[in-house]
Amino acid sequence: MTDIDAVGSAPGRVNLIGEHTDYNGGFALPLALPHRATATLRRRDDRNVTVLSDGREAVPVEFDVETKPGDVEGWAAYIAGLFWALREAGHEVPGADIRISSDVPSGAGLSSSAALECSVLTGLDALAGLGLDPTTMALLAQRTENHYVGAPTGLMDQMASMHGREGHVVLFDAAAVTAEPIPCDLAAAGLSLLIVNTRVHHQHADGEYGERRRTCEDAARRLGVESLRDVQDHAVEQVLARLDDGSDAGAGDVMRRRVRHVLTENQRVEETVELLRSGRLREIGPLLTASHVSLRDDYEVTVQELDVAVDAALEAGALGARMTGGGFGGSIIALVDDGQATAVAEAVRDAFAGNGFTAPDTFVAVPSAGAGVVSSS
Ligand code: GLA
Fold first, then answer.
1. Backbone phi, then psi, for 290, in 5-degree steps?
2. pLDDT digits (tens, 9 = 90+) for 274-295
3. Distance 326 CA to ligand 1 centre (A)
4. Residues ≥6 apart with Cβ < 8 Å to 3
5. What angle do CA 234, 235, 240 make, to 5 degrees?
6. First-residue to last-residue Cα distance in the chain
7. What is the pLDDT of residues 26-64, one digit of tens each?
8. Whose CA is nearest to atom 1 of ligand 1?
9. For domain 6-183, which CATH number applies: 3.50.50.60, 3.40.1190.20, 3.30.230.10, 1.10.940.10?
């Protein structure tokens, strides 16, 4: 036995467009970040698992491979849950010593948890010789998050982390559960994608995300369909009018606005894909901004810091800007001309200082590779 038996590596993601659509069977267009989590695994001869994360407690978290929901809490639950999900799916997994390092900012809406899950899963897949395909691994990671960690999230983050590709965004169709790489050569178009982490910590296990999800599910029931995807091809106004049909009280303004966001957001994803396919990258800017407005006014998942960051970026000349991820904090993206990223980042920093907000983190992202095994013996 060597000291290291497998190393899995997986990226965080930003979502270019298509927010709060995945759990409605819709479309999203994320890209993998250069920031990654790396999981180094060593097989054990017993049924125990130890997990150590660089930059966290010096003492490893320990659990049994037969762990059940509730056994492990905190960050290590994202790993313990994978053992549970794999065993639930009928796979034999060995005990292991796992060491994690990650440069994906956490709580920034950049999917540090999906990166963590997918890096460990990729490593475990190699360690146990399971031969799982990337989509199956993404589904296992989502199951972990939903049923072991207890966060009712969709599948976008894990699909982006598993299927990301250099120079491409990933068209995720949540109804078909497919991921199609779409070329997105920002540099060739003279563009940069600026990420601004507001450093307002977001948290999906909190009620708001689940509440949005439930409202959409109620709306689908009211419309007599399984998910809002099933009414995607109808005129938005028609669907909203149908929501109010029936003898009981109308659906209410809130539900109508939530549905309007989901339907128009899916359309924006489709339009963005068309523009990318025809090489008209610059033209996606207004769609990004429209997405933000919809998330702010109809879906109500932004916070002041996100709105200020978007407004400041646009005022400083960004072609488009929007919050990315689940919202209630986290990050925005801004599409900017090459050479403008520094000035736009500076403008956002100034606006934050002017509003008395904590200084944001900024960096430029390029579409990067998805999860993979770094080495295994
Ligand atoms: C979070 C969830 C995703 C998705 C986004 C919103 O990132 O993990 O599944 O729902 O929010 O688009």
1. -65, -35
2. 999 999 999 999 999 999 999 9
3. 5
4. 42
5. 100
6. 9
7. 999 999 999 999 999 999 999 999 999 998 878 899 999
8. 326
9. 3.30.230.10
